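Re: [help] complex structure
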Amino acid sequence: MSGYRPEGLDDTFSTGASEVPVAPTTTTSDAARGIGVVGWLRWGWRQLTSMRVALLLLVLLAVAAVPGSVFPQRGQDAAAVARYIEDHGAAGELLDRLGLFDAYTSAWFSAIYLLLFVSLVGCILPRSRQHWTALRARPPRTPRRFARFPAQGEGSSSDEPRAVAERAAAVLRRRRLGLPGYRVDVHDEGAGVWSASAERGYLRESGNLVFHLALVGLLVAVATGQLLHYRAQVLVVQGEGFANAQASFDSFEHGRAFDPGDLVPFTVRLDEFESRFDPVTLQSRDFTAHVTVTEPGGAPAAATIKVNHPLHAGGAKLYLQGNGYAPVVTVRDGAGEVAFSGPVPFLPEDQVYTSRGVVKVPDVSGGQAQVGLVGYLLPTARQGGPEQWFSVDPQPEDPLLVLAVWSGDLGLDEGVPQNVYTLDESGLTQAMDGDGPVTRYVRPGETVTLPDGLGELTFDGLRRYVALDLRRDPAVGWVLAFALLALAGLAASLFVPRRRIWVRATPGEGDQSPTTVVTAAGLARGDDVGLAPEVERVLAAVLGGSGPDGADPVGRAAAQDAGG
Amino acid sequence: MAPGDLSTLLVWAAATAFTIALFAYSVDLARIADAAARPRQAARTAAAAAARVPAMAGAPTVGVASEVAVAQATRTSDATPPTDAAGAVGRSARAEGIARATGLLGVVLLFTGIALRGVAAGRWPTANMYEFTLVGTFVVTGVLALLHRRRAIAFLGVVVMGMAVLALVLALRVLYIRADAVQPALQSYWLVIHVGVAIAATGVFTVAFATSVLQVLSAARSEGRSRLLAPRSGRLRSLTGRRVTGPRFAWLEQMPGAARLEALSFRLNAVGFVLWTLTLIGGSIWAEEAWGRYWNWDPKEVGTFVAWVVYAAYLHARTTRGWSGRRAAYLVFAGYAAVLANFTVVNLFFSGLHSYGGIG
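Output below.
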């Protein structure tokens, strides 16, 4: 069995079957000197595909994965990264240049895992070729001496050597526990000596190769998914809906190979949103969004979206990622014209849904200022003192809007996209009275006048909204398939025993004839506690019923340690 | 009494049982150390004992080397009751019996406590750090009970019981939160599969880790290396007696050899690694359902990945020339450190999608 073996692989199983002792492999840097570019390349390739380098790369990969969880990552929280760089000045910028805020897409991280995969492929492909040959090969011939094998046994039988060897072959071929038996050859070794050589557990190496190749498949599937995926976020207020098109999304990103024109134009409408909370701890217990989905060419259909239960539509999945309240307000300007009317989503900031938001009112009649109303929605408001309000329950038992009033130029006319949840206060002045800033408190159905003749605001009612994530990754099924294949391969490579067993029947000498001396030996790949019992079992079955001696084979296996 | 309170009480009871088992294992270990530390005396006793019971022990004839006699005597003491003269040498059968019985009692108590916790919360009890620690301890002690079905390894008992007591008391004093239903993100059957498998893997890795520690100590002693705690200055001189080659570690000679321990550690680590892989895959499937991304480089995911890669390195190291044995065991230490850090440091100091620990 002189086939390919990765540099540095300690494999007594392959080498143990041959009669010659293992010679240390002769590739060192000395051997590579003076053999030109090709020689160096070959040497480099041998190094890269060696066990030691694979080991080194694995350890490096583990170490390189750590910084990404220590520093904030752009992929997860771009705002945190910006904050971090701002707080740390030059050091932050240096870290940024080193790619520590995009650790998992950085050059150094990619280099490590790509090298690891090259090393893996360079190691696994030749091994697969060799295993393919081994799969069709016969078991190795019976070695002359059994002394060096980790499991041995002997006994004697009154049968002819040939009959003993053939009985051994039959015993070894038998299926046990539904698993395939050994692949067996019977040899006539001359001078009346017969032997059986057997091998099993080819699945172990198959599993090993399948595991490694499945990892390559996994990487390819993940990369394909990156190319073909899209992900979007959209906020939907109760009673409203959206179409699956780029224009309706709040955010949209897609892989290079995905054309946004290929978005399946289904529509989703949020009919109702239910939430349940623990009455004591106020922890969330259930969120359910009732929606109506209309696929292109289909009839509207009712559906629900829950956490852990995404909705499938148009090849994409819709996930319920967040929810909150959108107070419906109407603002009339100083001239009595309706300047703004509609729901305004407020973002919850704590467990009791104290929500912050901004109402941006454009100027509709001539000579009016733009108005920004910024403040909080308290779903169940309680007063703690003068000007002190807080919410005690996430459910809208007693909603209250608490707003500060700003006026001036909101920048709505420039057409520059702006964050709808924050107010840029430059160019604005806050309405004040004798005590300080003006605060307006308003409950549903109430109307309050705004200071400085800015008009009036009506709190028409409260609606729920949901934040949905849309995602399509056509490769996700492949990712799962390769992951499960890797798991199956791994289990086979660790738990299927690979064994060779030899049984030799030699005619007895002198006064021992006509008895036959039976010896057996076993070799396993890796640690195999079952090997010695297996040799004993086979020997007992071969000798069974063939005489008083045969019933008690002498197993020496237990006395021998498998060694370091 | 409400099931939740009863559960807490049972966990305290289990911690008590494990403490008793810890003591008993320590006594057992001390006896073994004692016996091994006085080989001459033991040899004399053994020779006397061997002379008294030649038929039973199949004792060697007078005049064999004293080491053989010692080995023989130890084996004899296994078979004879402790009241016998030879029984005083080596392991204490009574301490070992107490250790095994209380250990098993603790496992049963802990199991009942966990089950009642599930009843009290009305769900599968693996949702927060407190419950994770309880179930993890249950798996570890259960694996120990399984390993000790045939023969107790006192050192392993001391390490595992020590960790179990520590974990339970920490869980009760620091990690405890009221039994309650869970938030929508955790309402999935994957809570059973993903977290359950993760706990099982952690438990198996724990026992494997203890075995590897034993392996390294044992190898160091048999090779005469004592670098582990070699005194470098006068201040450390008091530790001289604790060198691995010193008399305090004589009990190591009564353990299975380093090679056998390594093989045991590997078998456990192999099972742990497959379970860990299943944890990763199950977690990815759940993440895909819950968050819309099967992999997000969340701190918990990174921690799991790092531990997986380190254990993968360990499996490779075992088959690499020059890396098997002690060096591979160092990778087990690194991998187990990653597993522990992933449970503690990541839960308590990093905020991410996996922030369900329940500790503010």
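Chain B touches chain A through 59 residues (CB under 8 Å).
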